[in-house]
Amino acid sequence: MELAQQKAKCLALLFLLVGWVQADFVEPPQPDTSLRSLAESQTRLPCHYKVEDGQKVVQVTWYKELPDGSKDQIITAHFMDGHTEFGRYSGRVRFESSSPTENSALLIPSTEESDEGSYTCHISTFPNGNFERHITLTVWLLPISSLDPVTLVEGQSFRVAATCRAVGRPIPRLSWDTDLPGQFQNRTSEGGSVSSYYSLHPLRGMNGKKLDCLVWHPGLEQPRRISNSLVVQYPPDATISAVPSDWYVGLEKAELVCDIGGYPKPQNVTWTWRGGALPDGVSVIGGKLAFGRSIRLNDSGVYGCVVKNNVGVGKTEYVLTVAEKSQRKGGSPDDNLLLIIIGASAGALVIILVIAVLLVNRYHRHRNKKLEIELSEKTQEINNLSRQNSFRRLNSVSTDPRVQAEDYALLRVDSRMKNSEMSLEQPIYKGSQSTLGGKWGTGGVEVDELGRPVVWHDGRESFRGAEMEEKEERRRRVESYVKSSNMSLDSGLPSSLVPLKAQQDDGVGPREPDVGHFSEGDSPHVEDWAPPRSPEEGHEDDEASSSYQLSKALQNHFYYSNGILRPRPHSNATLLQASPQII
Predict the structure, then answer these.
(1) Domain boundaries, the chain
(2) Which has the higher per-residue pLDDT, 299 or 540?
(3) CA atoms within 13 A of residue 360's CA, in its CB half-sphere
(4) What is the rounded distance in angstroms from the CA atom of residue 161 to the CA atom of residue 213?
(5) Which among 16, 15, 17, 18 is positioned nearest to 31, based on CA atoms?
(6) Handedness of CA 249, 250, 254, 255 (dihedral sign)
(7) Rounded to whole angstroms, how far apart are CA atoms 335 and 479?
(8) Is there a common fold for 19-140 and 238-320?
């Protein structure tokens, strides 16, 4: 009983030891492994056992299992006797490492289809015993493919245009890459070969079109393409053209051209004239019939071109007519059309330029007119503002009856201008010679109220006209100032200070002289005698007398002090208005 228990314990320890030792296989890690390889390539069968301390690999042996279940020894390696190859595997297999007991991987440099099968790697160790790994190898055969084109002829019935074949393991798959209208059919035979047939109805338009075969296989990363172009032969055809198109007597360098078609392209070209030999001076250069001389009238006739290939014959004719004179009166129709197009384009361009210039001119005129209007409006606005500012300055003058110093200065200038006019209006004539004199002069020389000598001329009428223009100019300047003033006739000033326009409107007499240059208490002196005067001169004397009386009246109300005309003191502190009767 105890012996049986000890045996059971030993068996358990043996199983545990075997399980622990199996874990020491580096590759393959699993007891059974499947591999795939390609024919004519190197195949590696892995087997690597890692020993522990106290263990040693004594021998390594590779076996191949046969279909009947037996094993065929391939190669063995002993840690002391080296390695040995057996049977038909001699020279076809070898260990990967120079130390097979350490790395026992097997290499098949050139794999064959017959190498497919199941292999066993047997490891013998001391003292632990034997260990194995099983590897199943599958060998693929890359496809061997080919394409057989067929030469077709136009007009043939529906038939095979190309055949594609492939052999491989596993069996490859075939397809076609083309735009041609047709059908294909695949057939598989024993031994892993497959064939594909592409059929169509041949036409000349199909000649040279793509008809490629594609081979598909799991051992290929992408399908293998077999390029092919369809060949369809057809008989030749020919056409004749004349260069130039207008033939006339005397034409130089003329030729007839035979345009050739067909496949294969014809190599031989035959020319005929009126069914016989060609005229003299004519040579055949390829597909051209060249005239090496000037065209004659008798060169007219029927010219024929005959071409041949291995499929058929092509023939064409051309009727040539030679005229005595050229029928062209101008350039060719194409040249005339080109000239018409150029002329029309130039005319359109000129019209566009004229329209553009007119539009630009109109735009600038409109703009200038607009700018002129804006400038006129701005100018008018500025003038209005200036006139309003002038009115404001003039209206700012005080209306106090007691006239300020500035006002008296202006009135004094006005009075001086009036007295100068009076002195010019009262000349003294002595005979027909110019004299100096006047009612204000002394020593026989006539002076005005400012002490200036007065010059008189014999040309009375012309001088009076100049005097009148000067008086009118002075009067307008004075009136321009007086009108802009806000002083009224009722301001209490004497009549000499009333604006000139108002006095004339009221029927007041001539303007009074300036009294601003008299000193206080002074009065003007009148000449005691005067030459006989005409009625007109008497009228001028009356005006002078009235002016003198007006000056006297002004002296009763004003006095001149320090160059300024000031009102005399009065009990009621007001200015008396001059009576019209004084004038």
Answers:
(1) 19-140, 150-233, 238-320, 405-567
(2) 299
(3) 6
(4) 12
(5) 18
(6) positive
(7) 88
(8) yes
pTM of the shown model: 0.48
Q: Are 143 and 168 in contact (CB under 8 A)?
A: yes
CATH topology of domain 238-320: Immunoglobulin-like (2.60.40)
pLDDT interval class at 82 (50, 70, 90): confident
pLDDT digits (tens, 9 = 90+) for 464-493: 566 677 778 777 776 765 565 544 444 444
pLDDT of residue 496: 44
63's CB contacts (< 8 A; 6+ apart) are 71, 72, 73, 74, 119, 120, 122
What CA–CA distances, in Å, run from 484 to 137, 406, 487, 558?
A: 133, 15, 9, 25
Specify whether the CB–CB gap between 423 and 438 falls below 8 A: yes
List strands edge to edge, sheet with 282-285: 238-243, 255-260, 288-291, 282-285
Q: What is the side-by-side order of every strand in the sheet holding 313-320?
A: 268-273, 301-308, 313-320
The values of phi and psi at residue 462, to 5°, are -65, -35
Average of per-residue pLDDT across 498-515: 41
Judged against a pLDDT cut of 60, whether residue 136 lies above it is answered with yes
DSSP secondary structure string for all residues of 148-168: EE-EEETT--SEEEEEEEEEE
Rounded-to-integer distance, Cα 542 and Cα 550, Å: 12
CB neighbour burial string for 280-315, b if at least 16 within 10 angstroms, e if fewer: eebeeeebebbbeeebeeebebebbbbbbbebbebe
| Topology of domain 19-140, CATH | Immunoglobulin-like (2.60.40)
Cα–Cα distance measured from residue 478 to residue 471, given in angstroms and rounded to the nearest whole number: 11
Second-level CATH architecture of 150-233: Sandwich (2.60)
* Interaxial angle between packed helices 535-557 and 405-425, expressed in degrees from 0 to 180 and rounded to the nearest 10: 160
Q: Residue 527 in contact with residue 445, Cβ under 8 Å?
A: no
Q: 12-16, 130-134, 301-305, 408-412: which has the minimum mean pLDDT?
A: 12-16
Return d(Cα 421, Cα 464) in angstroms, integer: 11
Helix spans in 426-534 (H): 460-484, 500-505
Is a pLDDT exceeding 50 seen at residue 74? yes
Is the separation of the CB atoms in 558 and 515 below 8 Å?
Answer: yes
Which helix (H) or strand (E) covers residue 420, if one does?
helix 405-425
Could you give the 3-state DSSP secondary structure of residue 495? helix
Q: Quick one: which of 81, 82, 122, 76 has its CA closest to 98?
A: 82
